Fold these 2 entries.
Entry 1:
Amino acid sequence: MADTDLRKEIQEQQAEPLLPIEKKLIVGSLLTGVVLLAVLVVVNLFLGS
Amino acid sequence: MTDTTASRLQTATRLTINEDWLSVLIGPLVFGLALASLGNVDLLGWAATTKVWTDPSHALAPFAPSYGALSGLAALFATYLALLLVLSAAAAALKADVRRFALTFSVTFWLAYASWILGSYAHLAAVTPADFSKYGISWSLRLTNEGGYIIALLLGLIIANFFPRFAAWLNEAIRPELYIKIAIVILGGVIAVTAAGKLNLASTVFLRGIAAIIEAYLIYWAVIYFIARKYFGFSREWAAPLASGISICGVAAAIATGGAIRARPQVAVLVSSLVVVFAVIEVLILPFLAQTFLAHEPLVAASWIGLSVKTDGAAVAAGGITEALILTKNAAEGINYQPGWILGTTATIKVFIDLFIGIWAFILAHIWTTYINVAKPSSRAKLVEIYQRFPKFILGFILTFIIGLSLALSLGKAQAAQLTAAIGEANIFRVTFFILTFFSIGVLSNFRKLWEDGLGKLAAVYVVSLFGFVIWVGLAISWLFFHGIKPPLAG
């Protein structure tokens, strides 16, 4: 694909609405990440004490 | 990024012998040859090392005193020949044009190493009053001799942006991924020997590496994907590789994700070139910010660099610069930390993040082929993709780490000094591969070409994510897990 085609494609992309599975992926990742981080912080404090 | 580089990136995941596997061969080879000195056979002592200088004839010397009869220039020529031989064999294995590689590598090596030598000029590198007195100078930019990396990067940038035809001609030898992967494999052994002296601290660093994985994959990725999709209107095909490139580890992650969601190869290639350009900007800024604001929390700085700078090469290299800058600042205050811990922590964080690329790519592949672009059962994600997308150079890192750690823990005091010298020899080559990496990253960073490609919108996502989110969350988490943990004092 030529550079000009890619440039045009990037600038003229039609919005694709977020699908339910994408929302699940985003929210699920964030929640899991925050919960796991909290667990690690507790482990970290436990190891440090 | 040139077309040949683009096509190399596209085929990188298809080749049986790729740069990953070559680093697994070459890294342990260098490490093994260096360890021969434990048996009183010094095979790499001729390698060139650079000292701070005012008279250029004193800039170079062979590493080992046993090769003292060799002049500095002869040592450098021997280093060049050895690398030319090994890397030309690697180019042959990659089915590259070996003659062209040898020619372009020669030019690349001498330009990059000249930058390194220039970086050791006393007015650039000298740091302490004792150095000033020793070299008879009254001022210095105090960049330490690691400032040579910055000069190599800047020289590469000048070539890329003002001499694009020369940059295109050099392309065959511009392989930052190969150079940094070999360097990281060698670094595995160096880190192990450093870690052996303080196993408790080393295990603490490893445990906190897990936090880095959670942050990069589960927090960074989700937020950046959301921003790219919701606020910048990118399609899924563009948003997923972009989120991986910005949040995980740049080029490798963008390519793995592109493959996983079955995106067109051009998408991952364009995202990769964007990541490289931003990595250059980060390397030029973040180590100095770390020195200014985090000098009294060296491991917070190390972790922050590992979490913020994308692409393995730029991150680990930035860790090297950060270490030099922070150790220097502390030394000026009378605190002499043992070298190796800051660089080791940055590299460990990065390797931990790399470990999970294959798993994350598989998760994305499963979601995309099952729920988004529903594929025939035969085309859906398979477990074997985890292995296929696993960065194999990590195997080399683990190998040298285990060998280095076993030796450091089992040898007596007399042989421990020999092991330190052997590691020093391996480290000479690690540094040389870093120099080649910096120069290569610079040569790949054609800002004008990037702008012409219309990547302003992609760059906007990067700017918003990096400066609005990634570096701050990275700093907060680094502070949370590394605050108060200090490297051991030297001696």
Entry 2:
Amino acid sequence: MKEGPRILIVEDHVGIVDALRLLLEEDGYQVEIWMHGAMVRPLCKPLPDLILLDLLLGGMDGKMLCQQFKGVPTTRHIPVILMSANKHIASIATEVGADAWLLKPFEMETVFALLDQYVGRGMGQVGSLAPPDSGEQGETA
Amino acid sequence: MQEAGNELGTGALTESTISISPLYKEGEGISFQHWLDVLPDALVVVDTTGHITLVNRQGEALFGYTREELVGQPLEMLLPERFRAAHQRHREQYATSPRIRPMGAGLELYGRRKDGSEVPVDISLSPLHFDNVFYGLAAIRDVTEHRRLQELERSARADAEARLELLQLILDELPTSVALVQGEEVRLVLANHAATTLWGTSWKVGQSMQAFLAESGIQFLSPDGAPLSLTSLATVHAVQHKETVRECQEVIRRVDSTITPVLVNAVTLGQRRFQGIATPEQEAEMDSAGPKPVALVVYQDVTERIELERRKDEFIGMASHELRTPITSIKTYIHWLRRKLSKQGDEDSATVLTRIDGQLGQLTRLVGELLDITQMETGSLPWHEETFELDRLVAEIAGDQARTTERHQILREGGGSVQVYADRERVGQVLANLLSNAIKYMSQGGTIVVKQETLPQEVQLAVQDSGIGIPPEKQAQVFERFYRVRSDAHESFPGLGLGLYLCAEIVRRQGGRIWVESQPGVGSTFFFTLPIGSTLSVGKGA
């Protein structure tokens, strides 16, 4: 059976992690979670197809992690979507080389639209309309 | 007094004076007693035993005795009792080294009148030898008036000193640093304890600021850490330009590298001279060129305030994160639940979840407003200007708002491509706020019109509703903080009263204008403008 795209979620808030996992796994994505610094390790095969990365992490620095992912030839190609409640998120995403950003609180439609764009649909997803550009997500230039 | 005494003894009756004076004629001139009686001072002569042998009219008048009552009596009867014993000893000593001198130099002397009252006097003594007998002459002057003036002067001086001491005490108790400086060289006149603590060393009275800084190693920096030249200091400016400088931010760096950020208020006090504050030499130096420009300088230590602001900013950042994070997970759960309910065909429950989601949106907006207002107060509101297509933003926001309601239609009029250079998110926030207000105050539903008009210098946006309207006297108030509209029916509308205030602040920062035209019962039109004049060319390039 064909496996769905692998999503790495780096986020320390248990509610967001749990809710995202619930939705994404139901849609057939394979979800890996890093919730704190101790879980950080060099990425190895099978590499994730996309990384959802929180900016402000307990014991981890989302900015630094993003720069690390983007600084290594083996992981540079993996799309990174930066998540934050910080209104500066757009410029921070550009600064650290993230591919896109999500301003918390975001709509799940927005998340699915970005996943669609970068890794294609999950196995079980019933399909969702691309949301309007509501200013809560964006792609970096 | 000593000199006067000498003159009296040696110069008053020289041969030449006597020979030309018509007053002096052997035998038929003015009598000896008359001479004595016309002397302006009281004269009392005593013998070696201390008994009075001669007294003149002034003596009688001064002490209230007749000559007869005095002659042959001990001199001490003319003294207050408390001085008598000592006086007797002094008198005997005088007999051993007789010369012309003032009596009791530096002391306040008193005589005793017949009626027992005391009179302040100055006394000069002079020896007299006659027939190998020693006499003591005392010239006594009533100095009541002189002493009174002296006393006045002394108490005035004591008053001034007490006042100065009080001033220094008050200044020293103040938590803020205060210094008074004068002259082009900015010399210190006075400083309080707090100032000395602030500098970490004392600035000597009379020392110029330049010398003080050189000696103490203190440096003044601007808030960004660049060294400030002497002439750019608020204190120096206030004295040299006679101009008050308020709320100037400076940073003091001491020789041990510790720093203190301060807010400086340097108030010019015009031309003045100060006495009794510095030592006489310093005063002489300071006053040599007459009155000089003076400035009162107050340094307020703002370390705590800056730290508090930093913590507040940090807190806002944290609160923003902490409040939004649970909302994010709730929204995600709702999405999951709604999808599940839809799959099961439970559309009613799914609709309820949609409403919950809508309320969460409202909550997010309120949290955002609170954070925005706090950041605006502290001047740390994030601000990112960019060139964007206004038309597209208006379409997006109008679309977003239309989706929040089923009873209202949003129509667009005018429009057309126009690039503006502004904070896109904030401009969108203004429009969204005006639209959501229109929706809120048109509870019965209806049509809201968004008009966009490009003028030569600016682009004007208008949001027109047919809601409850605003009475003319309230129209200016609606842009004030915490103002909330109430309808006649006391219908209440949700909100914190911050939305329009934020809109006005954002538009103002963007260089535009915001206003309302309204008629109660008919509706309101909110207008705002954004300048485009200088930004068009910028827009094309980006």
